[in-house]
Amino acid sequence: MPKTFRPILFQGNTEKKVYFEGWYYKQVTKDETEMISFIPGISLNETDKHCFVQYISVTKDHNHLPVIKTDYFPYPIDQFITRDEPFQVQIGPNVFSEKKVAIHLTKEGTKIKGSFSLHNLHPIQKTWLNPTIMGPLSYIPNMECNHGVISMNHSINGYVKINNRVIDFTGGKGYFEKDWGTSFPKEYMWIQSNNFKDPTTSLFFSVANVPLMKLNLEGFICNLVMQGKEYRFATYNRSKMTIQRLSSTEIKIILENKNARLTIVARPDKFGELTAPQNGVMGKKVKEGFSDHLHITLENFQAPFVYKDDGKMAGIEVVGYQMTD
User: Fold this and answer.
1) Structural domain count of the chain
2) Which one-letter DSSP state was computed for residue 124?
């Protein structure tokens, strides 16, 4: 099967002059009080060619308020080892696969060690026209930024030890996606959660400025999975999107096509700083937010029915868009 249909695989090669690729593994504890995401990746450019692992963690303090920590661990490029069958990426002593992750990150003042397994991955629906979440755009070469959703929802077992504190992820939930290309978009928004009251529900939404030849287009993708059924809203399937509110306290987005209407309301709680690629260089700082206040309303025009749910442990990024106070 072509790599286009398997975005989990390393899509590039280490001989590229300007390139990045990164996998995003998100883990949430069973009691929804702790979250940690690991991002292994590679950065190819003329000035600082290397591979890396970065992380973002969220814990709750005694007042149940989020505490966010991030860090970036670079490694020499020769410590980037990847294989396709079965898929695996190794960066230094850290190993990432489709079934298991082993972490061993150290620097002065920080030691992170852990191992957890992934079970019952939930991939998105694919066709020859839409081989990835990007639909027909998946076939266009040299896109600035490609996106792949590997698993909308899965279970995890294992632990992560940060210095002397052990976090037990047994019985928790995971999410898995990735990006590759030359740069992150200059404008984009991303919202994701698979911790809803209905445990089968998972949401991914993204809108971005997409340079295509000499044009700059705004493209969006949203995938909602509920009770085993997938609802896809995207520019390429003639859906429409309205950003009704975009402020530091509330984001409201309405998506609609001939089958359904989806309303997403998110309230960002706190932001942490991650490092993102710009022309292959991992030097751009972006804010990834956390929210325990995510509400969705799905109006199905065909059944018909209305479904409402509340999500927690959501990830939110808003880059380049003007936000009101």
Assistant:
1) 1
2) P
